[in-house]
Design goal:
single chain, 227 residues, eight-stranded parallel barrel, 7 helices, globular
Length: 227
């Protein structure tokens, strides 16, 4: 099965169309006011309507309550919910039960011990586990903020659920990241931007092209399921 590429933090019709035309499998929309990639429900609805089944729509939220999630689900009609905050395994299970949508649970990684939690999230029904770098202690939002973690840590830490690699990926390092991890899916945001929150069409195309080539070179990896 081919590598799954997710372009996250899209906010304009131009860059969304570029991502779709370049072959992105998932396109992500951020619903978190502190992020430079935050979109309104109106913008997300308009962008989502352009996808037309060509990719999976992903709504990224951070510790959102049920009311906020309900508005997002109604407004965007996402195919998956990406939970990028401190949601507990129990909260992930609640969200899946309430909204009946597949979930991507982001876990911050800095050391080998950080992988211990992933079994609990897999047991709670997370459809994907996304590994991201830990945010600095003074950060105002979660995520790696454009920084990679030590990808070699992933070796031997694969849960019985598909995983997605994120954090500091770009066209210059995606080949090495795939060589080391052999993950079935990758997620990029700041690595395809000119400045924070502004996607660069050429960088989107280049990232997807190199990722596809690297996948062919390092194939096969096994995708355990295809949400």
């Amino acid at each position: 099965m081919s590598l799954i590429v997710k372009i996250c933090g899209l906010s304009t019709t131009e860059t969304l169309d570029v991502a779709l035309e370049a072959g992105a499998d998932m396109v992500g929309f951020v619903f978190f006011p502190s992020s430079p990639r935050n979109v309104s429900l109106g913008t997300a609805r308009a962008l989502g309507a352009r996808v037309k089944g060509r990719a999976k729509k992903v709504a990224l939220t951070v510790d959102a309550d049920d009311e906020s999630l309900a508005r997002i689900v109604e407004g965007l009609g996402p195919d998956l919910l990406q939970l990028h905050g401190n949601e507990s395994p129990e909260r992930v299970a609640e969200i899946k039960a309430r909204f009946n949508l597949p979930t991507i649970k982001a876990l911050a990684v800095e050391a080998k011990g950080d992988f211990a939690r992933m079994k609990d999230y897999a047991s709670a029904g997370s459809d994907w586990i996304l590994f991201d770098a830990k945010a600095p202690v003074d950060a105002t939002r979660p995520g790696g903020l454009g920084r990679p973690f030590d990808w070699a840590l992933i070796s031997g830490a694969i849960p019985n659920v598909p995983i997605m690699l994120s954090g500091g990926l770009n066209a210059d390092n995606i080949e090495e990241a795939l060589r080391l991890t052999r993950v079935p899916a990758v997620d990029v945001s700041s690595g395809v931007e000119s400045v924070a929150g502004k996607k660069n069409p050429d960088k989107i195309r280049e990232f997807i092209r190199i990722a596809r080539q690297a996948h062919i070179r390092f194939y096969p990896y096994e995708v355990l399921s295809n949400p």
